[in-house]
């Protein structure tokens, strides 16, 4: 066998991303048809297929994986479709864009694809394991000029780590202020946007330069209604948030028309909504769980959790066969150190709730870097994710990565 | 869970369809006329919340309504379990 003369550039995988146009978006058959015709690939697996087990974003042979909810296909192109220049540049007005799939690694070391981390990441004096694993420490951006919203139990406004921050807070819970007494909201806000140099302990926050919008939609007792949450989303969009982080959900398989519609309108307005996939799995007991509301909305990015070996967390919900019930991306969600209401100051807890603000904060870094908003920002995050060993139904495109 | 046959009003969320986003206040008025107690009109996202008596499913038939659903209550898990 002759070795193919075309070598993919070092920073790309050799595969291509095909972005389907709006007319075909949502039409699985038409999307598959254009992918087949353009790439020469016969086998197009869709995330809407009945057996998500067949999905594997890491496949290397000829084939295509259609992310139906994104209108994007990842394709290993049949060699004769690649031009003499070594470039695959189909002209087809059903495609908005064609681009080489990128590999993005943390700068400090090239993590082997498909292998669990040999030695686990650990919190050190400088930073939490989650910031290390996602390349945040090497990123030049801080989220400056970007507004990020967290919709949760509020924030401890007295916390020294947020003393000098530009924070706008509002409560949507009757009779309660945005002051957090539960802890969950302060923890999530800390991961998303905590300072470079906290009062004590390692750095734990991603977008330290972002403007922080804190909407209290869950009460001091930790509960909230759809009305509170949707009001919070509406407020955050109106207040100019480019990213909304929602570490909340209900164990319900059926998609909510309200959340999906709001997620879609948010993207159109330039606001990316990310939500926790849910913690209803018990993988060690054979229960993969399922993505619930609102993360199962196709227009809301569902975040799964990995541990410090980059293995899927035991509790992290798996994709469902419901369109939109995919896991879109994964982030650190086990033993996550972050801020906590006084007098405790800090706490280390686990859950897809902890993974979600890692993605939201990193989205702010990308938004600052590229200016991308809404769907384009979504595509950037997914495109830059580091592929992981577990299948896409568990970790989506892989581990979220900051711009390097 | 809220049962649709319950006697009292239940909290509901109404999603406004794309064609009626600009006329959301008029839709809110139609919902009131149809028996819904409207609490919030969220124009930026095209959502109306409130409560409605049994038979709330019929609100979906009003012109401009993309969907009606009973409201969920989201609860954080107890401390010490995955959050």
Task: Note the topology.
The complex is a heterodimer of chains A (404) and B (83).
Chain A: E1 12-20, H1 28-39, E2 44-46, E3 63-67, E4 72-76, E5 95-102, H2 129-133, E6 147-152, E7 167-171, H3 184-193, E8 211-216, E9 223-225, H4 226-238, E10 243-246, H5 257-268, E11 272-276, E12 301-306, E13 329-332, E14 336-339, E15 346-349, H6 352-370, H7 374-384, H8 392-395
Chain B: E1 10-16, H1 24-33, E2 37-42, E3 47-52, E4 65-70, E5 73-75
Antiparallel strand pairs in B: 1-3, 1-4, 2-3
N- and C-termini, Cα separation of chain B = 22 Å
Q: Name the average pLDDT of chain B.
A: 93
What overall form of chain A do the CA principal axes indicate?
globular
- The ordered H/E elements of chain A are EHEEEEHEEHEEHEHEEEEEHHH
Which chain pair shows the most residues in contact? A-B, 42 and 26 residues
Helix content, binned percent of chain A: 10-25%
Oligomer: heterodimer
Tell me the series of helices and strands of chain B, N- to C-terminal.
EHEEEE
The percent of residues in helical segments of chain B reads 10-25%
Strand segment count of chain B: 5
Q: Quick one: how many beta strands of chain A?
A: 15
Task: Supply database-style keywords.
heterodimer, A: 404 residues, alpha/beta, seven-stranded parallel sheet, five-stranded mixed sheet, 19% strand, disordered N terminus, B: 83 residues, mainly beta
Explain briefly what this protein structure is.
The complex is a heterodimer of chains A (404) and B (83). Chain A has 404 residues and is an alpha/beta fold.
